[in-house]
Amino acid sequence: MSTYKMIRLGNPILRSKSKKVAKRKILTPTFQKFLDTLANTCIKNSGVGIAAPQVGVEKRVIVVHVDPKNPRYFNKKPFPLTIVINPKITKHSKKIKEDWEGDLSADLRGLVPRPMTCTVVGLNRKGEEVTYALEDDFHARVFQHEIDHLNGVLFLDKVKRKNTFSEYKQWKKFWKNKNLKDIIPTS
Ligand SMILES: [Zn+2]
């Protein structure tokens, strides 16, 4: 199955606001094929998620797929391969957690504060309305990260502790095995 080439950091497409998908377009063979290729691109790159603008398509579509065996984010609670069209966050917790994020478009990691839980609504690939109440903080994080992409927002923008910015290889060497409590001072 085919994949798309990833758009990389610096490409202005990553900073543009993606357009809503018209409901009548969803069931067309062209769009269905696009969804398959996008999902496949996420899998092939070992991503836990991908957003359409990351492959150069400025449409409001995200894919989330958390596999506990994913080497980039190991041992996370699984979330099945899920496509959401025109996703929207309708609710989120006040409680914030900082945790590591990376991106298939940039070889970087950093600590990003985000609401721990959220609810996402949108359409599935059949054009049906779907709601995801995300109680696992990592799942909620991935959805928020991918939805940010649709608005031209990158995780880099949200990193508060700039000293945690690392290239992926350096992250594995210096940060991966550190306890978060030792990096984030408790107030
Ligand atoms: Zn990303």
Summary, kept brief:
With 187 residues, this protein is α+β, with helices and mostly antiparallel strands.
Written account of the structure:
There is one protein chain. By secondary structure, the chain is α+β, with helices and mostly antiparallel strands. It has a domain at 12-89 and 115-153: Alpha-Beta Complex (Peptide Deformylase), CATH 3.90.45. Helix content is 24%, strand content 29%. It is built from five helices and eight strands. The protein has a five-stranded antiparallel β-sheet with strand order 1-2-3-6-7. The N and C termini lie far apart (49 Å). The mean pLDDT is 96. The site of zinc ion (ZN) has 4 residues, from helix 2.
Count of strand segments = 8
Helix content: 10-25%
Ligand roster: zinc ion
Number of alpha- plus pi-helical segments: 5
Give a quick account of the main beta sheet: strands, pairing sense, barrel closure: 5 strands, antiparallel
Which descriptor suits the 3D outline? globular
Q: Order of strands side by side in the largest beta sheet?
A: 1-2-3-6-7
Briefly, what CATH class of the domain at 12-89 and 115-153? Alpha Beta
What's the mean pLDDT score?
Answer: 96
